[in-house]
Amino acid sequence: MMGGGYNDENTESTSSWMNEYICSLQNQLAKRQDRWKEELSLVRHEMLWTTLWFEYQKNEWKNKAEQSVEPEKEAYAYKQAELWDDFIKKANFTFQGKQVEYN
């Protein structure tokens, strides 16, 4: 018995099992990487959608202000439009270079 008491049959069995285990780990890693790539893509799109939603709300309130005949409602609508504009600025600053570009 050479090689510390291991025979060729046990070594081949261990080697085969270890190769299967390594392949399984590599497969799991590849799947995990794919899931994270998908998650990153979704988050980057959600950043864009959030900013677009803020812009939509700002425009809605701006239109309401422009169509208003009552000064109080007009002032309130402009204030809301400013609020949504602040959200846009904060989102653009926070998401800068991270979100999907919108054409």
Key descriptive features of the protein:
103 residues; mainly alpha; 2 helices; 0% strand
Please summarize what this structure is.
The protein is mainly alpha-helical.
Give the SSE layout:
Blueprint: H1 8-67, H2 71-95
Helix pairs in contact: 1-2
Structural class: mainly alpha
Strand proportion: under 5%
Low-confidence stretches: none
Shape: rod-shaped
What does this protein look like?
With 103 residues, the chain is mainly α. The protein has two helices and no strands. It is rod-shaped and about 90 Å long. The protein starts with 7 loop residues before the first helix and ends in an 8-residue tail after the last helix. The model has no long low-confidence stretch (mean pLDDT 90).
